[in-house]
Amino acid sequence: MNVGPGSPSGGGGGRNRRRRGRRPYRSGQRGGRGRERDNSGGGIYNAPMDHSYRAAQAGGQGQRRNRPGFAAPYVPADPEPLPQQREDATSRIFAFVDDLFFQAKIQETARKLNVKVEFVKNDKDLGERMGQNGDEKPSLLIFDLNNANAKPLTLIPKLKTKLKKGTSIIGFLSHVQGDLKQKAHEVGCDMVLPRSAFSQNLPQLLRRHGAPEEEAPTA
């Protein structure tokens, strides 16, 4: 092969040129050849990474961050309030609840729905309130199953026997109290809900049981 002034330096064979072309690029290498290999993909590209795609992905996944793969929980809409009742209207719902947080929640929900709810401490207190209603029986009794003063596991079977099927009894407790839930069902509690589910369904429960009974149609 001819060797002249214009020939590549480092020898006169193609083999040498191929060997030099395969020499790996070293990190931190300087010079024009190193930069050419960087841009052509032969070495490691050290340019700053564009993180805009991460922001786009985060925006699309933000709604599923708490529960990946699941849709947002269904929250029922609050029902329409009942017609305004008279001040002397009898209460059809009684609650054995001494927890101040749930007392305030029940009172506020009942006020929005125009439903009257009375809080009682024990069976004697309930008997006095029911006596003011005449022959009308309560439609709903609410028990905080952790209310030790009311003794719910002892009182529920007595009330169930006395009031029969005309009154629904609902209790709420912590979601981890599986044994207490089973005992409440055994003594006659119609429905036992975790605190969160009770709070979520409270408007529907008050609306359903707080409505006055329809008068029987005349002949």
What does this protein structure show overall?
By secondary structure, the protein is an alpha/beta fold. It has a domain of 118 residues: Rossmann fold, CATH 3.40.50.2300. 40% of the residues lie in helices and 10% in strands. The chain has 8 helices and 5 strands, in the order αααβαβαβαβαβα. A 5-stranded parallel beta sheet has the order 2-1-3-4-5, with helices on both faces. Helix 4 links the parallel strand 1 and strand 2. Helix 4 runs parallel beside helix 8. The longest helix is centred in the C-terminal third of the chain and has 16 residues. The C terminus is likely disordered.
Question: What is the topological layout?
Answer:
Layout: H1 14-21, H2 32-40, H3 52-61, E1 93-96, H4 100-113, E2 117-119, H5 123-132, E3 140-144, H6 152-163, E4 168-173, H7 178-186, E5 191-194, H8 195-210
Parallel strand pairs: 1-2, 1-3, 3-4, 4-5
Helix pairs in contact: 4-8
Keywords:
219 residues; alpha/beta; 5-stranded parallel β-sheet; 8 helices; globular; disordered C terminus
Radius of gyration: 38 Å
Structural class: alpha/beta
Full CATH superfamily name of the domain at 93-210: Response regulator
Q: Provide the CATH topology of the domain at 93-210.
A: Rossmann fold
Question: Which overall shape is indicated by the principal axes computed on the Cα atoms?
Answer: globular
Helix content bin: 40-55%
Tally of DSSP helical segments: 8
Amount of beta strand = 5-15%
**CATH level 1 class label of the domain at 93-210:** Alpha Beta
Counting DSSP E segments of at least 2 residues, the number of strands comes to 5
Spans of at least 5 consecutive residues with low confidence: 31-41, 58-64, 215-219
Q: In the CATH classification, which architecture of the domain at 93-210 applies?
A: 3-Layer(aba) Sandwich
Report the biggest beta sheet as strand number plus sense, adding barrel if it closes: 5 strands, parallel
Order of helices and strands: HHHEHEHEHEHEH
Strand order of the largest sheet: 2-1-3-4-5
Nearest-integer average pLDDT? 76
**End-to-end C-alpha gap:** 123 Å
